[in-house]
Write a structure and sequence with these properties.
Layout (H helix, E strand, L loop, with lengths): L31 E5 L7 E7 L2 E12 L12 E8 L14 H14 L11 E11 L4 H15 L8 E9 L2 E4 L3 H6 L2 E8 L4 E5 L2 E2 L3 H45 L1
Parallel strand pairs: 4-5
Antiparallel strand pairs: 1-2, 2-3, 3-5, 6-7, 6-8, 8-9, 8-10
Helix pairs in contact: 1-2
The structure holds cytidine-5'-diphosphate (CDP).
């Protein structure tokens, strides 16, 4: 493990053996663990551990809009509140939501809105609360991925799930799923999201330098990596319903005795 103090960045982001600092290959994802329905009070929820990121997403709605003046008479609204806990990063982050959190909330909302049928819910709101408990790069992507699962867990009609991840370039090489240090010390960082019902990219941000040929390549790497995450998302949703089915069957067989 490489120990980094404060904002000192390593000179190289690849080890002698050609692997990235955390031991991954260029196209390898960090370990991802997903759980659905983890919060009792929310209509739907998800928890994601993605590398060192730990994130909860809670969905409420459709419900009354507060403040009332935000309500739209012809459609529902989607409100996203992305927050990073004060203790989620090395330095003490201010507890009040800053500009970055407001921007990320807006981005996530823009990514998720196309998958919802908001026109069916006039005058109401869907609210998604995202809490980043531990952060290590790509939290907006992990949050979007978790939020789409929390919506599915709430039983909200959706066109499809959304998968998001950050890809980019470090020390001149293309890589998928940047870690915190790769995000900060790398050459380019591209958070992207894919909506699966139309196979379209619904988020593409870009910070850094890359030529068009590299851009084409990295987008194709991103799609391959996203489809692996999509499989994990579907497996996590299925697992929840299989567990419920098993519980019901157990209860039924207990009741028959
Ligand atoms: O998390 P994401 O990559 O979507 O957003 P970012 O603004 O590019 O931040 C990259 C990483 O920097 C975060 O995931 C955190 O690990 C770290 N960060 C931090 O240490 N302190 C902050 N106030 C904000 C971000």
């Amino acid at each position: 493990m490489v120990l980094l103090i404060k904002d000192e960045y390593p000179e190289k982001l690849f080890r002698e053996d050609g692997k990235r600092l955390d031991g991954r290959g260029n196209l390898e994802l960090r370990p991802i663990k997903i759980e659905i329905g983890v919060l009792k009070n929310a209509d739907g929820s998800a928890y994601i551990e993605w590398g060192n990121n730990k994130i909860f997403a809670a969905v409420f709605g459709p419900r009354e809009v507060h403040p009332h003046h935000l309500a739209k008479p012809d459609k529902g609204i989607l409100r996203v509140f992305y927050r990073m806990a004060t203790y989620s990063v090395w330095e003490r982050k201010r507890p009040a939501p800053g500009r970055r959190e407001k921007e990320i909330s807006m981005i996530i909302s823009d990514c998720l809105e196309p998958i919802l049928f908001l026109e069916l819910y006039p005058g109401t709101a869907f609210e998604i609360y995202i809490e980043v408990i531990d952060a290590d790069g790509g939290t907006r992507c992990a949050s979007t991925t978790a939020a789409s699962l929390a919506l599915a867990d709430a039983g909200v009609p959706m066109r499809s799930l959304v998968t998001s991840l950050a890809v980019g370039k470090i020390d001149g090489e293309l890589v998928v799923d940047l870690s915190g240090i790769e995000d900060k010390a790398g050459d380019a960082d591209l958070p992207i999201a894919i909506t699966w019902y139309n196979d379209e990219i619904s988020l593409l941000q870009f910070d850094g330098v890359m030529d068009l040929e590299e851009m084409d390549k990295i987008l194709s790497f991103a799609k391959d990596a996203a489809s692996k995450i999509y499989d994990m998302q579907k497996a996590a949703l299925k697992k929840k319903y299989l567990t419920i089915q098993e519980d019901v069957l157990k209860q039924q067989s207990g009741g028959d005795k």
